[in-house]
Design a protein that fits this description.
This protein is an alpha/beta fold and 236 residues long. The chain has nine helices and eight strands.
């Protein structure tokens, strides 16, 4: 039997579960010139040189291969997805398969699903016991990640994440914009301001453009002027 291919400690693989708008807007994480099933991008940090985003027709297979799992399904689907047959084994690090980390990392961008809820699902529905859980992280990016202008809020936990995990998370989400860390009691407010905020600001911009049209400006020019004015104000 051939020896397993062991990944370098400087290479990590990410599996993305859920292909809705949020995960679609995270496409800047993928290298644009490589096939989807073999996309890699360089990490400008000393501990990791490559992050690979792999495509699979099986959630379990994708998770088994991955070091990092980005969970982006609808909130009501989380339990069913994580408790699928074979998922517990897939979420457990198999050192003979060459995983670069001692624990896998689950990053959830599912709105309203807390870290304790995810850990409860992993224990009660998936079958993990004690402290053998994967590392669970809650993050809230927004749709501006599509143009690398997201405001991502990452939920702090107690005990805190290790420096290496924090550094990795920060690096991942800085590829698509800005990152802040805040406690769990503020995550709902962050969701309202950041995740829903793009729609609120778009409504304000539309109203400003409507005002310009009411004063005689052509619609296309009024919209462009309103958008650039809002962009300039944010830049100040």
């Amino acid at each position: 039997m051939a020896a397993p291919q062991v990944k370098s400690s400087s290479e990590l693989t990410m599996a993305v579960l859920g292909c809705g708008k949020n995960n679609g807007h995270l496409h800047p994480l993928r290298h644009p010139h490589l096939p989807h099933h073999h996309r890699r991008f360089p990490l400008v940090k000393p501990s990791v040189s490559t992050l690979r985003v792999a495509q699979s027709t099986s959630n379990v297979s994708a998770v088994a291969e991955a070091d990092i799992i980005l969970l982006g399904c609808k909130p009501y689907m989380v339990s069913g997805l994580l408790s699928a047959s074979g998922m517990k084994e897939a979420l457990t690090v198999n050192h003979t398969s060459g995983h670069a980390r001692k624990q896998k990392i689950i990053i959830s961008i599912c709105a309203g699903v807390t870290v304790p809820q995810l850990e409860q699902i992993l224990r009660e529905d998936v079958g993990f016991q004690g402290n053998d859980l994967p590392i669970v992280v809650r993050a809230m990016p927004n749709t501006a990640s599509k143009i690398r202008e997201s405001m991502t809020v990452i939920n702090t936990v107690d005990p805190p994440l290790s420096d290496s995990v924090t550094e990795l998370l920060t690096w991942i989400f800085e590829r698509i914009g800005e990152v802040v860390y805040l406690p769990p009691n503020l995550m709902d407010a962050c969701t309202s301001l950041c995740a829903s905020g793009t729609a609120f600001f778009a409504l304000m911009m539309e109203a400003a453009a409507d005002g310009g049209v009411a004063m005689g400006l052509p619609r296309a020019e009024a919209t462009r002027m309103a958008a650039q004015t809002m962009r300039g104000a944010a830049g100040l």
